Amino acid sequence: MPRITIDGVECDFSPGQMILQVANDHGIAIPQYCYHPGLSIVASCRICLAEVWAPNPRNNNALEPIPKLLPTCQTPAADGNVVYTTSPKAIANQKAVMEYLLINHPLDCPVCDQSGECFLQDYSYEYGRGVSRFEEAKVKQPKKDLGPHVYLYSDRCIMCSRCVRFTREVSGTAELTIAGRGNQEQIDVFPGV
């Protein structure tokens, strides 16, 4: 059976599994927002990026680093690879992603409906910076009534796109879409629905 090493832990895996799936199966914590086992993989949140070293067959299978951090949710596990999610490069990425996600996020944790049951809050504490370098005004997104059962707080959305992928891949209704670009991007009802 093929093996991969993640943060010093050797893990068996089935061919076709992604690094993040192997880590989840073996209880190794890698931060993740956009990944869900029942949905397609988009690798949009970028917090799961890790340093990967791979055997080089032209150099007696000596381990060599892949130059860029790779999204563990979208990178297939390969026999002999060594993955570091706690290396200085990976930690710097996690801090940068958390800082970026919180740039326009409101500071309303005490009144939020999640009541502390929130990966954003947990990951901010565990993987984020202590302070933000962002000094500009936050972009305020509108609250939207998306129907009788959904009221969307757009300013709390981190654009993981899970809801959009769910309506396309699971329910098959495809009524949600991502509209806009950059800091104006938001979830919306598809026009004409």
What does this molecule look like?
There is one protein chain. With 193 residues, the protein is an alpha+beta fold. 20% of the residues lie in helices and 20% in strands. The chain has four helices and ten strands. It has helices spanning 19-25, 88-101, 119-127, 162-169, and strands spanning 3-6, 9-12, 49-56, 62-65, 70-71, 82-84, 143-145, 151-153, 176-179, 186-189. The strands form three sheets. Strands 1, 2, 3, 4, 5 and 6 form a six-stranded mixed sheet that branches. A two-stranded antiparallel ribbon has the order 7-8. A hairpin with a 5-residue loop joins strand 3 (49-56) and strand 4. Helix 2 (88-101) crosses helix 3 (119-127). The longest helix is centred in the middle third of the chain and has 14 residues, at 88-101. The model has no long low-confidence stretch (mean pLDDT 89).
Strand fraction: 15-25%
Spatial extent as radius of gyration: 19 Å
SSE pattern = EEHEEEEHHEEHEE
Unreliable residue runs:
none
Mean pLDDT: 89
Helix content: 10-25%
Q: Got a strand count?
A: 10
* Mass-distribution shape: globular
Distance from N terminus to C terminus (CA atoms, Å) equals 49 Å
Structural class: alpha+beta
User: Mind summarizing the main beta sheet?
Assistant: 6 strands, mixed
Number of helices: 4
